């Protein structure tokens, strides 16, 4: 038999066998098609969502040929790259003149002759909504003009045609609760506009913005700014540098590179469609020589993608291999007939391999077709998720072909081991149906153990040395080592069932006896769980590190209502009422005041040289110095533990050295005016002695490092500028500096880390020292975090109180998205576990019909079939999950060692930096995988198994 006819016969036999065993064939096709479907859909989505250069230009320019942007530097020559995204002044160019001396540039004069243009200018704004007020961006652009097509598209209603009309993006309408026909007020100029249409930006579907005609918004702002200059609030329009021009060149000519160079001579940067799509040679680009060597290196990304692809192929092979093995076993009589008719062992192997090729090819075709269909079906959902419209479904033929070939090769690889086993069987064993006995390999577990130990050592060394490549390679090697040990582990399971009831004992022994079927499924579960556990462990560890290093801006559970620079601008009673009515406030508010000397620099910032200062002078000496600063700090930081390092960082001597929390009061002194209510509500210092000291006029010092012998040194410089007529009248005379020694009540060291406050001064002490003070706001205790609706309602109410106040809450709960990540990982691993366990259970049922018939013949009740299927599924799922958890810890620990190495390097450079790098196990995720998923798999398998025994024809 020649080669080609032999393979043709093998494929014919494989095709007929696949049609005859429809259930098993469908199972294998599904296992191969599902990953192919996922990769195909991912490739199509990625290629379609990743805009081409032409699509990116359309999103940026619309239907125009170019966008001209004046950089505001005057008629100064610039250099740019052809794409218009990178520009600079030429080397050796003189500094541009001061802004008030720069000559204006006539940008339209740089356009090609015969072109037309649109102007575009944007400004951040605060507008009214149905719920209250919201911050957004208003763009002045004639969106009805054909030049805007592709950049802004109308989805409902009509384009704005008058100066009192606007269009809103659909995202803005959803967030604001407004609809077409409603009116919106721009705060500041208090101009009212009617929403005439809903639009979308195809490249930014989640953009919440408004569009108006040129001159409809910014010009009224300028008039309002000129009219209200020096009043309660100045509303400044955008600067001229924000102005852009969308240019349509002469018919058929567009904007050329020579036009771009001419505009560069006048200080204008151009992004031209024609030039970007067909860039000039580097010899014509003055800036090209400086940009060489800026190419990005995607080596690590490519290595990661190849690793993921390899592990995906491995997992498919592990899942599909047992199906082919069972298929070959079920067809052993047919294979024996091939041998009895003169077929060689290679031809028997060819029949099994042809089955893999047939089913792999069908799975590849089905997967690719389903990938195209699902991508097209869910395209709107994908576009909404990515926030960008696809220009078209972008198909890379070679990539799709490669994905299909991958499915085909995977089917052949999955059939390789069963083909080798089938070729080794004798014709007599195949015809009689005897399985024979074959001792498990003694070499494979040894090789697996060596690979496991070597992989762990390599991953740990990679983590210590900071090589992510070694971490990845060692982790894969360790996982492959566990794979080699799985047959021995599965064989050991059979010994655990000696004292168990009937069905779990049979399930364990069946798993041990049929290692060729059980081990790959356990390995597939292990591979999926290992990846999920690794990522979950690394994520949970990073979250714990962030929580450890977190610096709150306020005391947790509090909210601060503050005024702007000048408290006279705000109506504090009305602002307080808005907070108390809308926020989940508990208890009465605590007053908060600021104190300063001379003229306040935070108000008279235009004359900073004529402002006073107020500071607490820190005593000198070792007791008052931070040990993490100066000589010996590096050695100390590397010697102590992470907890001791944090204790030092929060100590009175070090707390002010590196922490950048919000500062109450004036300047950096962190001195506030307050009473006992501030101590209990914000500082959380419930001390009658401290309250008594404040009532007696004695300040409470939270940071003992600033005190010596129970006193602090307060240095005040009384300097007044010309604008500060009020305070200057209260304190006439020349500038002077006063230094006072104040008796203070010193709080325990644990209160030194109170955010934003170093010392609480009673009002009588400030008056006694001749300092200025005024009410700054209030501190509230919250029962919970306010919702978005409560925040919006509060902002709207505070707007009515004079717009001179603002409120913020603690940022202690800003890392909440990790829980969703861990849940997604657990669900992914759970689905794979259920699938692998279900596949193995189905194969076990098909492979053990004779045993089930025997059980029924000896009087076993019908429920045994259900319970046996459930325990078989439970054995595979539980074993794979436990092994996967152990395997997943290896890369997680190695990556955390890499992070530790980087943290230690940062600590050597700055001893104030923490090197805390914990390894935190995600016990919730592990519990879900190790307990819930296996039990669920067993219950589902038992529930979906029929308890009735089919009548079987007696053999022979």
Describe the structure.
- The structure is a single chain.
- By secondary structure, this protein is of the alpha+beta class.
- Among the domains are: 116-245, no CATH class; 472-550 and 817-956, no CATH class; 551-809, no CATH class.
- The strands form four sheets. Strands 1, 4, 5, 6, 7, 8, 9, 10, 11 and 12 form a ten-stranded mixed beta sheet that branches.
- The protein is globular, with a radius of gyration of 37 Å.
- The two termini are 33 Å apart.
- 42% of the residues are buried.
Gist of the model:
By secondary structure, the protein is α+β, with helices and mostly antiparallel strands. The chain is built from 30 helices and 23 strands.
Indicate the topology.
Layout: H1 3-20, H2 22-49, H3 53-61, E1 66-70, E2 79-80, E3 87-88, E4 116-128, E5 133-140, E6 153-157, E7 165-169, H4 170-176, E8 183-186, E9 191-200, E10 209-212, H5 218-227, E11 244-248, H6 257-264, E12 268-272, H7 273-277, H8 299-330, H9 332-340, H10 345-377, H11 379-386, H12 397-424, H13 427-432, H14 443-465, H15 468-493, H16 502-513, H17 515-549, E13 558-563, H18 572-582, E14 585-596, E15 613-617, H19 633-639, H20 642-649, H21 655-658, E16 671-673, H22 676-683, H23 688-695, E17 700-701, E18 711-718, H24 725-730, E19 736-743, E20 745-746, E21 759-761, H25 763-768, E22 772-782, H26 788-799, E23 805-809, H27 818-847, H28 849-857, H29 863-909, H30 923-943
Parallel strand pairs: 5-10, 7-9, 16-21, 17-20
Antiparallel strand pairs: 1-11, 1-12, 2-3, 4-5, 4-11, 6-9, 7-10, 8-9, 13-22, 13-23, 14-16, 14-22, 15-18, 17-21, 18-19
Helix pairs in contact: 1-10, 2-8, 2-10, 2-12, 8-12, 8-17, 8-27, 9-10, 10-12, 14-15, 14-29, 15-16, 15-17, 15-29, 16-17, 16-29, 17-27, 17-29, 18-26, 19-29, 27-29, 27-30, 29-30
Subcellular location: Cell membrane
Keywords: Cell membrane, Membrane, Transmembrane, Transmembrane helix
Transmembrane segments: 301-327, 348-378, 398-422, 443-464, 476-497, 518-538, 819-839, 873-894, 926-944
């Amino acid at each position: 038999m020649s080669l080609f006819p032999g393979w043709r016969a093998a494929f014919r036999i494989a095709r007929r066998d696949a049609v005859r065993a429809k259930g098993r064939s469908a199972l294998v096709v599904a296992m191969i098609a599902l990953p192919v479907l996922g990769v195909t859909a991912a490739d199509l989505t990625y290629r379609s969502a990743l805009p081409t250069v032409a699509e990116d230009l359309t999103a940026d320019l619309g239907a125009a040929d170019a966008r001209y942007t004046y950089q505001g530097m005057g008629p100064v020559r610039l250099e740019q790259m052809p794409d218009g995204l990178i520009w600079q002044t030429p080397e050796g160019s003189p500094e541009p003149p001061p802004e008030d001396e720069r000559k204006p540039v006539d940008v339209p004069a740089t356009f090609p002759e015969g072109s037309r243009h649109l102007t575009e200018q944007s400004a951040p704004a605060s507008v009214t909504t149905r719920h209250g007020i919201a911050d957004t961006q208003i763009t002045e652009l004639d969106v009805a003009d054909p030049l805007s097509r592709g950049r802004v598209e109308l989805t409902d209603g009509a384009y704005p045609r008058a100066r009192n009309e606007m269009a809103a993006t659909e995202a803005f309408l959803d967030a604001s609760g407004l609809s077409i026909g409603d009116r919106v007020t721009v705060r500041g100029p208090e101009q009212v506009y009617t929403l005439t249409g809903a639009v979308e930006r195809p490249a930014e579907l989640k953009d919440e913005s408004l569009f108006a005609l040129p001159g409809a918004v910014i010009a009224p702002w300028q008039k309002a700014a000129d009219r209200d200059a020096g009043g309660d609030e100045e509303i400044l329009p955008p600067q001229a540098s924000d102005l852009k021009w969308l240019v349509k060149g002469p018919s058929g000519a567009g904007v050329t590179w020579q036009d771009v160079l001419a505009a560069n001579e006048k200080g204008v940067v151009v992004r031209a469609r024609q030039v970007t799509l067909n860039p000039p040679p580097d010899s014509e680009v003055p800036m090209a020589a400086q940009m060489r060597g800026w190419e990005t290196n995607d080596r690590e990304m490519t290595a990661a993608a190849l690793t993921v692809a390899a592990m995906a192929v491995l997992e498919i092979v592990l899942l599909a291999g047992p199906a082919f093995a069972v298929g070959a076993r079920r067809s052993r009589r047919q294979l024996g007939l091939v041998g009895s008719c003169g077929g060689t062992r290679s031809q028997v192997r060819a029949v099994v391999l042809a089955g893999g090729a047939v089913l792999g090819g069908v799975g590849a075709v089905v997967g690719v077709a389903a990938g195209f269909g699902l991508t097209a079906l869910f395209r709107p959902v994908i576009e909404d998720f990515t926030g960008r419209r696809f220009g078209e479904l972008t198909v890379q033929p070679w990539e799709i072909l490669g994905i299909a070939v991958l499915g085909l090769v995977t089917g052949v690889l999955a059939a390789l081991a069963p083909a080798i086993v089938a070729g080794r069987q004798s014709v007599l064993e195949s015809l009689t149906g005897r399985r024979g006995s074959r001792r498990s390999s003694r070499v494979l577990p040894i090789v697996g153990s060596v690979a496991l130990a070597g992989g762990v050592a390599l991953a740990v060394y990679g983590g210590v040395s900071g090589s992510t490549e070694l971490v990845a390679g060692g982790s894969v090697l360790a996982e492959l080592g566990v794979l080699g040990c799985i047959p021995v582990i599965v064989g050991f399971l059979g010994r655990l069932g000696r004292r168990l009831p009937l069905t779990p004992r049979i399930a364990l022994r069946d798993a041990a006896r049929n290692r060729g079927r059980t081990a790959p499924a356990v390995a597939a579960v292990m591979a999926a769980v290992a990846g999920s556990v690794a990522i979950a462990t690394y994520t949970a560890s990073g979250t714990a590190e962030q929580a450890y290093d977190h610096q709150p801006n306020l005391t947790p559970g509090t909210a601060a209502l503050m005024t702007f620079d000048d408290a006279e601008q705000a109506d504090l009673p009305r602002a307080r009422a808005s907070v108390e009515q809308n926020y989940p406030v508990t208890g009465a508010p605590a007053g908060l005041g600021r104190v300063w000397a001379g003229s306040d620099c935070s108000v008279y910032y235009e004359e900073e040289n004529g402002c006073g200062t107020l500071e607490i002078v820190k005593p000198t000496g070792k007791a008052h110095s931070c040990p993490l600063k100066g000589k010996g700090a590096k050695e100390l930081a590397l010697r102590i533990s992470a907890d001791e390092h944090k204790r030092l960082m929060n100590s009175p001597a070090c707390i002010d050295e590196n922490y950048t929390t919000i500062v109450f009061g004036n300047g950096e002194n962190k001195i506030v005016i307050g009473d006992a209510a501030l101590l209990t509500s914000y500082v959380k210092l419930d001390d009658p002695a401290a309250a008594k000291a404040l009532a007696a006029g004695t300040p409470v010092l939270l940071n003992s490092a600033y005190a010596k012998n129970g006193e602090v040194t307060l240095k005040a410089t009384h300097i007044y500028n010309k604008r500060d007529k009020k305070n200057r009248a209260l304190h006439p005379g020349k500038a002077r500096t006063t230094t006072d020694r104040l008796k203070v009540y010193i709080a325990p060291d644990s209160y030194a880390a109170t955010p934003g406050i170093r010392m609480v001064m009673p009002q009588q002490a400030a008056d006694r020292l001749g300092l200025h003070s005024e009410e700054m706001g209030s501190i509230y205790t919250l029962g919970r975090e306010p919702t978005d609706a409560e925040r919006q309602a509060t902002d709207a109410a505070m707007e009515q109180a004079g717009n001179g106040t603002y409120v913020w809450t603690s940022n202690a709960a800003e890392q909440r998205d990790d829980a969703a990540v861990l849940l997604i990982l657990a669900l992914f691993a759970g689905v794979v576990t259920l699938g692998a366990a279900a596949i193995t259970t189905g194969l076990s049922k098909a492979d053990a019909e004779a045993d089930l018939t025997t059980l029924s013949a000896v009087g076993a009740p019908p429920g045994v079939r259900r319970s046996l299927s459930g325990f078989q599924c439970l054995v595979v799922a539980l074993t794979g999950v436990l092994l996967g958890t152990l395997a997943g810890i290896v890369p997680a620990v190695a990556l955390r060692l890499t992070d530790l190495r980087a943290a230690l390097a940062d600590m050597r450079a700055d001893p104030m930096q923490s090197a805390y790098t914990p390894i935190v196990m995600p016990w919730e995720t592990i519990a879900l995988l190790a307990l819930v998923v296996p039990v669920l798999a067993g219950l589902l398998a038992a529930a979906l198994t029929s308890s009735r025994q089919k009548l079987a024809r007696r053999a022979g």
